[in-house]
Amino acid sequence: MSTKSRKDNKGRVLRPGESQRKDDKRYIYQYTDPNGIRRVIYAVDLLELREKEKKVIRDQLDGLDTYVSGKATLNEVFDRYMATKYDLKPQTRVSYKYMYDHFVRDNFGNRRIGNIKYSDVKLYYYHLINEKGFKPVTIDNIHTLLHPTFRMAVRDGIIRVNPAEGVMAEIKRSNSWDKGTRHALTREQQKAFMEYTANSPIYSHWLPLFTVLFGTGCRIGEVIGLRWDDLDYENREISINHAVIYRVMENGKAEFHVSTPKTKAGKRKIPMMEAVYQAFRDEYEAQKESGFNIEICDGMSGFVFANRNGGLHNPANINRAIRRIYEAYNAEEIIKAKKEKRVPILIPHFSCHHMRHTFCTRLCEVEENIKVAQDIMGHADVSTTLNIYAEASDTAKLQAVNNMQKIFDIF
Asked: What string of DSSP letters covers 327-369?
């Protein structure tokens, strides 16, 4: 069975991908670029179109030759890697691109991938740590982009070994690495912070939000994204099924967006303790006077917590409020303790995420079933819960020994 060839209005046979528009008789060539995106080029006549086709094919071959020969820069390979990640959430893609563009593209990214060695990656990370003063979490984030980029090049046969393999493990073992462990607030510190907030005419409006953060262990984006519909007062449960994140987008502007959990563990129901239940009721009553959250984010509305303008809270503003509160408390506590001739109970630096860590620590202090703690926290990996449990256990062990000494007067 023969296949009928397509022809133009002059009877000339058109090649695959070529066509002619009926309205203005312009010629079209459609093709798919290396990133899997459909492209279209136009021309007034067929000869002009085919010259453009040759250029497209030549450019594609040049790019392929550059990649296959290992002459491509790290930037080019990273862009190719990102093009293969078709299943990334839009917010995650923007976050990855932002991280790479700000910390890699204009310097290390210009190097040819075939010339990058293990020691080059290691020296680059040390440069960021020691000379740029980057935090450990930033280096980790950069590594999570570079390592799979090199791994793709290895699988494609462009380079033989992954130069980033083992670099982070070695750096983390060195003295240059500040692990930046997040420690939970002690019970005394947590109580002091909450009491100071509750009794402050300046900061007391933050109390319901802080109560929910300390009393649920939710991530800050999950709390910001809570809607009244997510609260089940009858069964005293909170449904966690999304988060609201504040990110710099491709247009350079920072915007709020709704994000769904990346893992099954992130979608969960959390029991509502009495203090949290009351915090929600107090917030509702307060907003009946001041006005409810009016913001609409990706089609969602009816958010529980609102800033002074009736919109969503920026996490950075919440962290700034936390800092102002504990700094004000510490200043007053030092003077008060001096008058009372006692050691002051000072509150260390902490942020929203420390509130989550503190909740998990309190939970591990009273709950022996790690699986229960893991489910409430939404940890995909139980090792995350176990690490916090180990820290809580160390504190509990010290407390137990001290209590034993007080009870048994034998020394």
From this structure: HHHHHHHHHHHHHTTS---PPPP--HHHHHHHHHHHHHHH---
